[in-house]
User: Fold this.
Amino acid sequence: MLASRGVLVISVSSLDSKLAGLSLKIRECAKRLESMENKAKEKYQLLLKYLEQLEGKWVSKLDNKMKEQCGRLCDDIEYRIEMERKAIEDRIKAIKEELAKLDEELSVIHGRLKKEADRMKRANPKLNEKEEKLKSKRRRLSMKRGELLVRKARLSRGIIRRILNRRLIRHIDREIEVLDREIEDVDLEIFRVRTKWQNLKKKWEQEKKEAEKAWAEIFVRMAELKQELIFYQDNLDKLAREGGIKRFIWDLAKRFADPNAYDDPLILECYQEVSRTVEEKIKLEETIKDLAFSRKILLGFDRGIKRFRKPLGALRDEESRFSQLPKLRIKYPRVLDLMSAALDRLLLAIEESEGDPELTAKSIKPLFEDKGPFSSDRLKNFFDEIGSRVKVAVDRQWGR
Assistant:
């Protein structure tokens, strides 16, 4: 950085180096945020497994509870069991409808393939017959041409014969020319017949390939649906009971069912344990979302800097190639220092969180909000200010 008449200025090369340094800081921050995000995702997967085990535990406990006389509790769970039964029956109906539809699709594919196969069978002998007739005609024309050439050779033996028979020879030449054109036309027609057959064959092979692919996909889907159908039909009562109890557990956790309405310590314990875990799950989801958002903002910022540096590189090359051009002196953009300080704050916040993803997300969130240094307006202003300073320098000092 240089002082020019009390104004701080910077060269193109130094500005590019400053931006490169910021880019390194940005990538380091993004790398650390990705590590925090991955740690949060691992924790989230473990929590999901625990939640599944917790759900299984309470399904078993409430199932045993229902074997007693439990009044309103049993009625509320039974109501949800019937809801679950209806949902499974609806799914069974949907599977049967989809299987019927897929079966129809198979019939359509089969019909289309049969139709094309019949068309090929009809076209093959017709085109073969046409080609044989054309080949026979060509042979006749070739033989006639050969006879004329032999006759011409006889008439042309010796200079005297050639002179005496010149009219006849010219007539034979004209006949040969006519035959050559006819042979050429026949060859073209043979080519068209063969091309038509090749196109039909190619189209048939393509349609057959596509049909076989579609057929295989439908068969796989039908096999999956049949397995699912058998599973639901064979386990309807069990699945409805388990699903209904699960509905009740989740309704408790979300307060759609009042845990205090049953005057039962078991239900209160179920609510407290499950709802606490659900709250932890929601917090982790928010943490992952916030960390991912922050990381994407930084990566986008880094891409912006890379794009911005390309024209700076072009200006630096011009300075090197044309010695008559003065070295650009750009008014120093203060946003460089502000952004560097913001990145230092971001790194410090990540370090002070001591590897805790939730604490990291909470401490860095203000930096990415509307008034933070990494908001869309602030990032736009960063590029606008530097771009404006560079443009002013080029216009004034290089006369552009």
Residues 12 and 315 are 7 Å apart (CA to CA). The chain has a mean pLDDT of 89. Strands lie at 2-4, 7-10, 330-331. The chain is about 85% helix and 0% strand.
